[in-house]
Design brief:
Layout (H helix, E strand, L loop, with lengths): L1 H10 L3 H7 L17 H12 L10 E5 L4 E5 L2 H24 L3 H27 L19 H32 L4 H28 L6 E8 L14 E7 H7 L4 H11 L18
């Protein structure tokens, strides 16, 4: 299921991101109140926030620079942070209440609120770099040969980007679960369904480029689904016959630890559609 896939992806986002994401550990609901913690109330509270949340989550894309192994990111991170600043308290309270509630809908709302808090923290880190002079050369030094600080800004961008990727992974799972449950009132459900589509589009089209900008392994990997099987004996040789499937890298590594009987089902579960799945022409499957 997609929920399992995204859960593993969220965990794999990194301890450093989790530590910076938000200070939920220190937030305590006053007097133990859980007003509005029933699943229906949680969905209503999330729907009310949707009108004020950013329509699109920056970065919405990146122009990669082969010379610097980095890139230029699309979207206004500073404005995104300013908007989320006004909603941070509501999102944090929603997360706490959803985390204390039971049921799949509550779990989904908790993931979504947590994801927005990740985006909030990530936007701050990336916005700090965006508001500075990014044209300042990365190799610049002062008269004493000491780095002039451009590396700090790049590090801030990388930390922020990791957090936003983590938040988007939570949204992919959380909004996807709300779409499957279809438990909200029609106007609210339409908002959640739109968010689910946006999260899928981001995962398929934007995530691979952002991960490349971080110089990290691609989120997907092509693996053979079958080998030496030909549907045209005497025409297409078995030696060149192969079909490929694109799977999530983290789940592929997990599947390799399973028994042979369990592995095939796990790989099918891990199959994804992403832009980094396109094989090079020399490696296209015989079935394509």
């Amino acid at each position: 299921m997609a929920r399992t896939r995204r859960s593993l992806m969220s965990i794999a986002a990194g301890a450093v991101a989790a530590a910076v994401a938000f200070g939920v550990g220190g937030a305590i609901a006053e007097d133990g109140d859980q007003v509005g913690s029933a699943p229906e109330a949680l969905l209503e509270r999330l729907a009310e926030l949707e009108a004020d949340l950013p329509e699109d989550i920056a970065p919405t894309g990146v122009t990669l620079d082969a010379e610097t192994s980095f890139g230029v990111f699309d979207g206004d991170l500073t404005s995104q942070r300013a908007v989320l600043d006004t909603l941070e308290s509501d999102l944090r309270t929603l997360f706490i209440d959803a985390d204390d509630a039971d049921g799949e809908a509550a779990s989904a709302v908790g993931l979504i609120a947590q994801g927005w808090l990740d985006v909030w923290s990530g936007s701050a880190a990336m916005g700090a770099a965006e508001s500075n002079d990014l044209a300042f050369p990365l190799t610049a030094t002062d008269d004493m040969g000491v780095s002039a600080g451009a590396d700090v800004l790049r590090g801030s961008t990388e930390t922020g980007l990791q957090l936003i990727l983590q938040g988007q992974a939570r949204h992919l799972e959380g909004y996807g679960l709300l779409r499957e449950l279809n438990a909200a009132e029609p106007p609210a459900q339409a908002l959640f369904d739109d968010r689910s589509r946006q999260a899928r589009t981001f995962d398929q089209e934007v995530r691979p480029d952002l991960v490349t900008a971080l110089s990290e392994p691609s989120p997907s990997i092509l693996v053979p689904a079958d080998r030496f099987v030909t549907d045209a004996p005497g025409v297409r040789s078995r030696a060149t016959s192969m079909s490929l499937m694109c799977v999530d890298r983290v789940l592929y590594e997990t599947a390799m630890d399973l028994s042979e009987d369990e592995r095939e089902a796990a790989l099918a579960e891990a199959e994804v559609v992403r832009d980094d799945c396109e094989p090079e022409p020399a490696f296209e499957s015989a079935d394509s």
